[in-house]
Design brief:
Blueprint lengths: L5 E6 L3 H11 L6 E5 L7 H4 L16 E2 L12 E2 L8 H4 L9 H10 L7 H11 E3 L13 E3 L7 H13 L14 E4 L4 E2 L2 E2 L2 H6 L8 E5 L1 E9 L2 E9 L2 E13 L2 H11 L2 E2 L1 H6 L6 E2 L11 E9 L11 H14 L9 E7 L10 E6 L17 E8 L7 E3 L10 E3 L6 H18 L2 H4 L2 E6 L7 H11 L1 E2 L29 E3 L14 H17 L1
Parallel strand pairs: 1-2, 1-13, 2-10, 5-6, 13-24, 14-15
Antiparallel strand pairs: 3-4, 7-17, 8-9, 11-12, 12-13, 16-19, 16-22, 16-23, 17-18, 18-19, 20-21
Length: 532
């Protein structure tokens, strides 16, 4: 076996990779290498909260599209995944939510993940969180992942929260507290007017460590094994193919799309699929790439009578003024994450926890592939999704070429209950927009237009317009059964010297955005790795 170059090699510089690089390199005797296929997080848009609106279709994502979605109009839907240091935490909307205790108790009690109940994982949520506004049993205040209140919500965001109350939904000051249900203002991963990604919060403060090496532009090609022990990784960097070896562990943190792709390129996955591509099978693990779950989003877009939303800053002179305000004071429109307001609610009576989440955007066409309003006009967007979708999809290889994009089939609306939940969420969203606090600003609802209101029409509208909420999980499922890909200690089943430590191991989606849960998982993983 070759002499190791490092003690630990981390493959993927997203949220989980940054957390693990910081925690593992804190041990002086470790020598840690972090590989990231994308660039460093130097771009100004990353650090400006409002820059989210420029990111989902940018070169800092992989540019993926799904396979044609059979239950969603046979469309190939944009599927943005971060390709930059910090991963999704560098390009997302900075919304800080983590789900309810029942999500993690389900992992432990129903999905075979002993040791991952809420009582087990709450200490890691607290360890990661650096909240600047809330300090109680539900919140940590000293963690690297900075969290704050939105300093001055946009007028339209305030109108949205008031409209929810007029509809009968109570105000909630803390979606991560004792009660998730209600409407209010999201807490965000923003500190001092700048995004606090995992790259900024975890990695930047420790980049000086001599036992930590970070390589960007390093695209992993395959894992290297000695029998059933992982010993390293082959990757392309600056036009050359290199191989490095790990003395302790190889840790895969390439995300719910990248991690199964790398395993399959390395001969680990469904045997017949690998053989069909000419890949030598190292281990037949059918579950690799299966169980893909994602929040399926539907958008409501409204045109305003005036210019009360952030869209007015598309005008050059106002954009310049906003930029100057931000440069001087770290305040104003550029300090907004756009997605300021939110709502967790129920699609039907009798539910013990919310099954719908909404994001209110104080602007229109802020995300890639979402319709806007006529040129020169201003708008708002309200989107929603079912929190615990039942449909499952898959990730497969298109070829044995590591540079080829994988085949991504999230199977949107592949379960009837997902469609019904989303349609009910859409109907509630339209009712909220009709409340006096918002209605006085709205000229017309553009999407769906006024002609679409019957049950059949709304179902068809959802199928034709639904999209990803950028929360894929589950493709290297954790569990205790033989069909799981990793064990509950995150070790790849049947192998030594390798763990998968990212959202791909989630057995199912938590009822929230996924960045904070991914940081939690990586925090817990660092302790599991230390235990051996």
């Amino acid at each position: 076996m070759p002499e190791p170059d490092y003690s630990h090699i981390i493959i993927g510089g997203g949220t989980a990779g940054c957390v693990l690089a910081a925690r593992l390199s804190a041990v002086a005797t470790n020598a840690v290498l972090l590989l990231e296929a994308g660039q460093s997080d130097w771009h100004p848009y990353i650090h400006m909260p409002v820059g989210f609106a420029k990111m989902t279709g940018s070169g800092m994502t992989w540019g993926y599209r799904t396979e044609p979605q059979v239950h969603a109009g046979n469309r190939r839907i944009p599927y943005a995944q971060g390709r930059v240091l910090g991963g999704g935490s560098s390009v997302n909307a900075e919304v800080f939510t983590r789900g309810v205790p029942a999500d993690y108790d389900r992992w432990a009690q129903q999905e075979g993940c002993d040791g991952w109940s809420f009582n087990d994982v709450q200490p890691y949520f607290l360890r990661s969180e650096g909240n600047t506004a809330l300090a109680d049993a539900w919140h940590g205040t000293d963690g690297p992942l900075g969290v704050s209140n939105i300093a001055n919500p946009q007028p339209m965001t305030r109108a949205f929260v008031m409209a929810c109350q007029q509809y009968g939904i109570p105000f909630n000051h803390d979606f991560n507290g004792a009660t998730q249900a209600g409407a209010g203002y999201y807490q965000v991963n923003v500190v001092d007017g700048r995004r606090c990604s995992a790259a900024r919060g975890y990695l930047a403060p420790v980049r000086h460590r001599k036992n930590l090496t970070v390589l960007t532009g390093a695209a992993s090609r395959r894992l290297v094994f000695d029998g059933l022990r992982a010993t390293g990784v082959e990757f392309r960097h600056r036009g050359k193919i290199r191989t490095v070896h790990a003395g302790c562990e190889v840790i895969v943190t390439a995300g719910a799309i990248g991690s199964p792709k790398l395993l399959m390129l390395s001969g680990i996955g469904p045997a017949e699929h690998l053989k069909s591509l000419g890949i030598k099978v190292l281990a037949d693990i059918p579950g690799v790439g299966l169980n893909l779950s994602d929040h399926v989003n539907i958008d409501i877009v409204a045109e305003l009578r005036g210019h009360e939303s952030l869209d007015k800053y598309r005008k050059p002179h106002l954009a310049a003024w906003a930029g100057l305000q931000y440069a001087l004071f770290r305040s104003g429109p550029v300090a907004s994450n756009v997605v300021e307001g939110g709502l967790f609610w129920y699609s039907r009576p009798g539910l013990s926890i919310p099954d719908l989440q909404y994001h209110f955007l104080a602007g229109a066409a802020a995300e890639d592939g979402v319709a806007g309003v006529p040129p020169g006009r201003s708008g708002i967007t309200l989107n929603c999704y079912g929190l615990r979708p039942k449909a499952r999809g898959m990730v497969r290889l298109a070829s044995a070429d590591p540079a080829a994009a994988p085949l991504i089939d999230p199977n949107f609306m592949g379960h009837d209950e997902d469609l019904e939940t989303t349609v009910q969420g859409l109907k509630t969203g339209l009712e909220i927009l009709s409340q006096p606090a918002l209605a006085k600003y709205i000229r017309r609802v553009v999407l769906p237009d006024a002609a679409i209101r019957s049950e059949t029409e709304l179902r068809d509208f959802v199928r034709q317009h639904c999209r990803t909420s950028y929360h894929p999980v589950g493709t290297c499922r954790m569990g205790s059964d033989a069909g799981s890909v990793v064990q509950t200690d995150l070790k790849l089943r049947g192998f030594e010297g390798i763990r998968i430590c990212d959202s791909s191991v989630f057995p199912s989606l938590p009822g929230s955005n996924t960045n904070a849960p991914t940081a939690m998982l990586a925090e817990k993983a660092s302790d599991l790795i230390a235990q051996g």
